[in-house]
């Protein structure tokens, strides 16, 4: 019996013992893996290539990871906006240091709400009367 066939059998046994509860079956498998190297090998074997690739990428990234932090006066991506300006603008809007605006339009362009029609008011009153009778 291969390691993968053995692992498949143990997975089914864990599901059976856990009565279909995946989280409990997972905990059982993890407990069994600590004692059973054949189970560990059977579970990990199909994923070893990915695991090895991830380990290599992670090690390579750590070696080349010296990213300098930009200074606050440094300009952004060529659009003339200072780095950190977006966050500062949001804070100024929240504290009221600039005139309030909403997304998509300026505040003074907002029209007053329209007057409610008589038909609408009558419909709401009819609904309220029906609800009161029941």
Summarize the SSE layout with pairings.
Blueprint: H1 3-17, H2 22-35, H3 37-44, H4 48-63, H5 85-95, E1 101-102, E2 105-106, H6 118-133
Antiparallel strand pairs: 1-2
Helix pairs in contact: 1-2, 1-3, 2-3
Oligomer: single chain
Helix fraction?
55-70%
Shape annotation: flat
State the helix count: 6
Q: H/E element string?
A: HHHHHEEH
Spatial strand arrangement across the major sheet: 1-2
Strand pairing plus helix content: what structural class? mainly alpha
Q: Which value, in Å, is the CA radius of gyration?
A: 32 Å
Percentage of residues in DSSP E strands: under 5%
Mean pLDDT: 79
Q: Could you give the distance between the termini?
A: 72 Å
Q: Show unreliable segments.
A: none
Strand elements, count: 2
Description:
The chain has a domain at 3-63. It is 60% helix and 3% strand. The chain has six helices and two strands; from the N terminus they run H-H-H-H-H-E-E-H. The radius of gyration is 32 Å and the shape is flat. It starts with a helix and ends with a helix. The model has no long low-confidence stretch (mean pLDDT 79).
Defining key terms:
134 residues; 3% strand; mainly alpha; two-stranded antiparallel sheet
